[in-house]
Specification:
Shape: elongated
Helix content: 40-55%
Order of helices and strands: HHEHEEHHHHHHHHHEEEHHHHHEEHHHH
Radius of gyration: 29 Å
Structural class: alpha+beta
Strand order of the largest sheet: 5-4-7-8
Distance between the termini: 92 Å
Largest sheet: 4 strands, mixed
Number of domains: 3
């Protein structure tokens, strides 16, 4: 009985190790899995990994912003260098704007240098490109609300003021120093600055320390870098009135056994060689099982996401509220399995590519919109502020009232929090001074 007990104990331990490795494979993204499979092939004579690049992969590459140049040996797409224009436009959703607005956004983004500044004043750009000034200022405001704070300004002073606004800094002395006294700060004339502004020197030192935390070059090397590209793990397409869900299988075809070594394992009289080859054959079977489990898990997740976020994938509508816990309950999986399955993975849909994790958003319940998400509410706040009278901007209390009229029950404190997360200033910061164009 004792030897039997030991054998059963050993089998249980091996099964546990395989479960752990299966979960590890589930958590791999497409590129990690590809590298893992190539390594397995190099170490296992019983294994054949057939790698190919299909027309779909080439399509994915174009959607991701990758070059159509391919390395003939590794079949790895060559990345393009990202410009300031690319960096800014990647943060926008074209469907959020009219064709005329998006054309102006493209023009303005194309006139931002590598440091993040506009190459000309708004007035000059309006004249050169014959853009009506109200349209230009509206679109410029959109770009100036992108990341990083301070981008798309036409002067250093404006750039630093935008960064102070994004930090929630409301010190009027800091604003005055940025607007009129940067030269004194640069020369270290802080005592003279304190006398000129009738301010305490400790206050001046605090403001200077705050200014030192800002960046005079908002893009600061972000543009001009090598563009990062994403290989989609899931691809969803709208066909014949329904969603088709598939994996990008051409990046990781399944393992196949090697006929020569399989026959050798059967025919050889060398027991050590036979045991070795049988062990490697068993490894091939396990890997195929783990890959199939990964495949089926991702497909099930993809089908649920397509059903939940159909409007978003098709027309750029708002994301429906959805948490990983809710999806786990729907699919009867553990939430940790969902978390591993979507880790560092991307989904290609009709409007582009997004990180799967970004499709999970918590909801803010309301009577009219029981499934409205936090991101949708923030989008409503942004839209209300964008459409307000800049001479009489809305207070957070007024924004709360407008949202309540739309059926969204929300507190003023939450509105303030969301507005600040959007890097939008308060009512006084958004007011256009009289006589300002």
């Amino acid at each position: 009985m004792k030897p039997t007990h030991l054998i059963l104990q050993e089998q249980k331990q091996i099964l546990s190790q395989r479960q752990v490795e299966s979960l590890h494979i589930l958590a791999m993204d497409a590129q990690e899995l590809r590298e893992f499979m190539i390594q397995e092939q190099n170490e296992n004579p019983m294994l054949n990994f057939i790698e190919s690049v299909s027309s779909r992969a080439r399509s994915s590459a174009r959607t991701s912003g990758m070059s159509e140049m391919w390395d003939g040996t590794q079949n790895i797409p060559a990345p393009l260098e990202e410009t300031a224009r690319d960096f800014l436009l990647a943060q926008l959703r074209p469907n959020d704007y009219t064709p005329e607005e998006y054309e102006v956004l493209q023009i303005l983004a194309g006139n931002v240098d590598e440091k993040g500044f506009l190459m000309g004043t708004p007035e000059e750009l309006s004249e050169v490109f014959r853009i009506p000034r109200p349209m230009l200022h509206k679109c410029l405001s959109v770009l100036q609300n992108l990341d990083p704070p301070g981008v798309c300004c036409s002067s250093l002073e404006e750039c630093l003021l935008k960064q102070l606004e994004a930090k929630g800094e409301r010190d009027e002395l800091a604003r005055r120093i940025v607007q009129f006294h940067l030269a004194d700060v640069a020369k270290g004339h802080l005592g003279r600055l304190a006398r000129t502004l009738a301010a305490d020197i400790s206050h001046i030192n605090h403001v200077v320390a705050t200014l030192a935390s800002l960046t005079p070059n908002p893009l600061n090397g972000l543009a001009g870098r090598t563009a990062q590209y994403a290989i989609p793990d899931l691809i969803i397409t709208w066909e014949n009135g329904g969603w088709e869900i598939e994996l990008e299988n051409d990046w990781f075809a399944k393992f196949e056994g090697c006929d020569y070594y399989e026959k050798l394992a059967q025919d050889t009289a060398d027991e050590e060689l036979r045991n070795y080859l049988q062990e490697k054959a068993q490894r091939v079977r396990f890997l195929n099982m783990a890959l199939e489990k990964r495949r089926s898990t991702l497909l099930r997740i993809g089908r649920s996401l397509a059903a939940r976020h159909s409007d978003f994938f098709l027309s750029g509508g708002s994301l429906a509220a959805l948490t990983m816990t809710e999806l786990a309950e729907e699919l009867q999986m553990h939430v940790s399995t969902i978390s591993r399955a979507i880790k560092n993975k991307y989904l290609q849909h009709p409007r582009g590519i997004c990180e799967i994790r970004s499709l999970f958003v918590r909801g803010m319940p309301s009577e009219a919109y029981p499934q409205i998400s936090r991101e949708t509410i923030k989008s409503r706040i942004r839209a209300l502020i964008a459409g307000e009278d800049k001479n009489k901007p809305c207070s957070d209390k007024q924004l709360t009232q407008f949202l309540m009229k739309q059926g969204i029950q929300i507190s003023r404190r939450t509105v303030t929090k969301y507005r600040e997360e959007l890097a939008l200033g308060g009512m006084h910061d958004r007011r256009t001074p009289a006589g300002t164009f």
